Amino acid sequence: MTTDSRVRHIAKAITWRLVGTLDTVLLSWLITGSGVTGLKIGIAEVVTKMILYYFHERAWFNFNLGPDGVTIESKKRHLLKTFTWRVVGTGDTMLLSWFISGNPLIGVKIGLAEWITKMVLYYVHERVWYRLDFGLPKRHS
Questions:
Q1: Which pLDDT tens digit goes with each residue over 69-83?
Q2: Pick from 25, 49, 80, 86: most CB atoms within 10 A?
Q3: What is the DSSP string of 42-105?
Q4: What kind and span of H or E run contains 137?
């Protein structure tokens, strides 16, 4: 585990949080009808999601899926990462949305809507980062 890989994970956390927060703000605004509530939910989740995402990245960096102990770098791995992150992320958004709106149904609605949008966005984000060597030994020619 190198310092460069930690920098990579921090950079991934920041870029994902930008994409994810914009999605949450938009969905929250559409569901609640209030741009202010959408902004409150989006801003609140910036801190919690950055921390959760960093630890999710660290866990997956150290997780081996291959039978020979070698990490599989594949679409299957990215799909599994997408699913596990979505479980963590949606739970966080649902709780924050409930707390900020005061309505548990709002939390559920936002959580269900973002389950779909963020699965697609996260998978695309993972595929883009997979193609980048930033923070890793050069592996592409």
A1: 555 567 777 788 888
A2: 49
A3: HHHHHHHHHHHHHHHHHHHHT---STTSPPP-SHHHHHHHHHHHHHHHHHHHHHHHHHHHS-HH
A4: none
Yes or no: say if 61 and 85 are a contact pair by the CB < 8 Å rule.
no
Instruction: For 54-111, write each residue's pLDDT tens digit.
Output: 899 888 887 766 665 555 567 777 788 888 988 998 999 999 999 999 999 999 999 9
Q: Strand, coil or helix: what is 31? A: helix
Local structure of 22: helix, strand or coil: helix
- Cβ count near 65 (within 10 Å): 14
Q: Which residues have C-beta within 8 Å of that of residue 114, sequence separation ≥ 6?
A: 23, 24, 27, 89, 90, 93
